[in-house]
């Protein structure tokens, strides 16, 4: 015995799902970028300043897919920033990037929850 099944509207459903995925991805990309630049600004506000080199070199690099970002200094530009952030045996820590990140984290997570809350 053979059964034949025909689905109506499958093409429309596929199109709607792809549109939904693209819209949600765009929302998340915007949230990631917005948060990354807020962390950068916050880090610059908190950074210890001697010459201003470390503060000037706090940069944002958004991943090519837009879904993640690196925020901070590069060792090539400012090799001492890690010592300022975490301290050394001789100097106490003067954290600037970790607190900047932690301050933005709750808002970032809430925005993601709002954007993706209907995704199950």
Q: Could you describe the 3D structure shown?
A:
- The protein is mainly alpha-helical.
- Helices cover 56% and strands 7% of the residues.
- The chain has helices at 10-46, 53-56, 81-86, 97-116; strands at residues 59-62, 69-72.
- Strands 1-2 form a two-stranded antiparallel ribbon.
- Strand 1 (59-62) and strand 2 (69-72) form a beta hairpin.
- Helix 1 (10-46) packs antiparallel against helix 4 (97-116).
- It is elongated and about 85 Å long.
- It starts with 9 loop residues before the first helix and ends with a helix.
- The mean pLDDT is 92.
Which helices and strands occur, and which strands form pairs?
Layout lengths: L9 H37 L6 H4 L2 E4 L6 E4 L8 H6 L10 H20 L4
Antiparallel strand pairs: 1-2
Feature tags:
120 residues; 2 strands; mainly alpha
Please estimate the helix content: 55-70%
Main sheet properties: 2 strands, antiparallel
Number of strands: 2
Structural class: mainly alpha
The sequence of SSEs as H and E is HHEEHH
Strand order of the largest sheet: 1-2
Distance from first to last alpha carbon: 38 Å
Strand residue percentage = 5-15%
- What best-fitting shape do the alpha-carbon axes yield? elongated
Which ranges are low-confidence, i.e. pLDDT below 50, for 5 or more consecutive residues?
none
The radius of gyration computed from the alpha-carbon positions, rounded to a whole number of angstroms, is 22 Å
Q: Output mean pLDDT.
A: 92
Q: Count of helical segments?
A: 4
């Amino acid at each position: 015995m053979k059964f034949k099944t025909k689905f109506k509207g499958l093409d429309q459903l596929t199109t709607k799902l792809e549109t939904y995925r693209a819209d949600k991805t765009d929302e998340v990309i915007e949230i990631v970028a917005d948060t990354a630049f807020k962390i950068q600004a916050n880090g610059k506000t908190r950074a210890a300043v001697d010459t201003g080199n470390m503060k000037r070199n706090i940069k944002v690099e958004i991943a090519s897919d837009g879904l993640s970002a690196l925020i901070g200094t590069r060792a090539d530009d400012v090799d001492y920033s890690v010592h300022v952030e975490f301290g050394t045996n001789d100097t106490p820590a003067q954290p600037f990037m970790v607190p900047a990140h932690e301050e933005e984290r709750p808002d970032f997570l809430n925005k993601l929850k709002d954007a993706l809350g209907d995704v199950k």
